[in-house]
Amino acid sequence: MMELKKKLAFLYPTYVLAIVSIGYVLGELGHYMIGVTSKAIATDLHYGDITCQLNNTELDLNGSPEVCSDANDSDTCMALTIDGVPYCEWTYNGLGLDYQILAGPSFIAVFTIVGVIMGFLADKFNRVRMLGIATAVFSVAIVVSGAVTEYWHLVVLRMIMAAGESACNPLSTGILSDIFPEEKRALVMSIFNWGIYGGYGIAFPVGRYVPPLNVWGLGWRLCYYAAGIVALIFAFLTYFTLKEPERQSIGEDAANTDGKKITIWSVMKDPRVIMLCLAASIRHCGGMCFAYNCDLYYQIYFPSYDLGWWLFAVTIIVGSIGVVVGGVISDKFVAKMGIRSRVVILAISQIVATPFAFGSVYCEPVGAMITLGISYFFAEMWFGILFAILVEIVPLHVRSTTVGVFLFVMNNIGGNLPIAVEPVSKAIGYRESLYIFYVAFYLISSLMFLLTVFLMPAGISTTSQPTTKDITGVDNIVFTTDETNLPTITNLVKNFKQTDTESSRL
């Protein structure tokens, strides 16, 4: 048995990456599914705006006298017919201020605050155990969301879901950065952070095609029951099959030999961190704005086109390729040119993505999907590269706390600004509001990332060294000493990593 464990020890890092990444995908599925199921839920729970919309009657609408959305009251709406058959209905469209609060602030407010707390605790306690519990929390919230009967129930559950999911990034980022060496770090971070887009992409077919099936009479509720139950399985696997890795100094932290104690405040005042945080906040706003509104946007502007599978393919397939390519290129260049090269790749990828993001809103359905695919290929490189940069310029003892604070600022700005889409869309139009909060924000963040390049040091970093255990609370001694004498797969991986990390270049 021990011989088998030794042979399989090399697979353990990949296993950890798979478990935490899939768990994150499921959390993000619960997060973004509201954007696709909102119309069905609003019809059931009665919240948001009521408008005239195309109904499910299968009529040939070519040459129809009027567009449904032009009708401003129920009588005018129902009077729109073809051969005496109404082709419009006066019902909830899933949008409105109620929806924007549900999708954004109710989730983001808790997500950001608890995320900082989780980041602080992650620097002091067992991250794997905390991640397992947090995954269980958001899993239960997703399941119970399928049983709600009032709007406010859903708001409360979105807050609980946010509290659990807020732990995923700071905890998993720390765990993965301690397991994988620098030459693989951007790719690993990209794969993990692709969970955002994985969950978002899967939400399209799940939210669009499962509710109409009305399996067991559950409608939209089945989406939440199924997603939550699967997430609970991964919460169990996280808690019981993963082990806390030994914490390691990496990047600039490994090169810091003057013994000066660096605090979270001094880290957050670093011009590089400030610039990265502001640029990331604006870029995140653009991404969240499109994520919350794209399905409803395409349904409103192109009601005759079923784009669910197209959106799934663009986000899952094209986005995945972009994530991998971005991570691989970043890891290749950092070995020769240092951390600055990561920022260069980050800036260039977002600049290239911007004009195609404009096309995804401006063009007709076919052109919109083509330009959206190209935009996604370049745009989705950003998150993994960003956090690879962050963990390499932040000291070990405040790494998870910094990620938590970084996410707090980024999500408060990027997650709450999309609520402005509602009043702006009523003033100048829905499509025009997306030009501002989606396309223009992509462009602004691209330029800010480009300016950040000049704040980064040139050249390559020094060799990483594992940290030495002490009793200051930084390492998880209380959680690891009871495991040191057990022949676990984690110990085998730890021994294997000692040689690997000492010879790697940072």
UniProtKB/TrEMBL annotation:
It comes from the Eukaryota. Keywords: Membrane, Transmembrane, Transmembrane helix, Transport. It holds the Pfam family MFS_1. The keyword Transmembrane helix applies. It is found in: Membrane. The keyword Transmembrane applies. Residues 16-460 form the Major facilitator superfamily (MFS) profile domain. Its main location: membrane. Coiled coil: none annotated. GO terms for cellular component: membrane. Belongs to the major facilitator superfamily. Spinster (TC 2.A.1.49) family. This is Major facilitator superfamily (MFS) profile domain-containing protein.
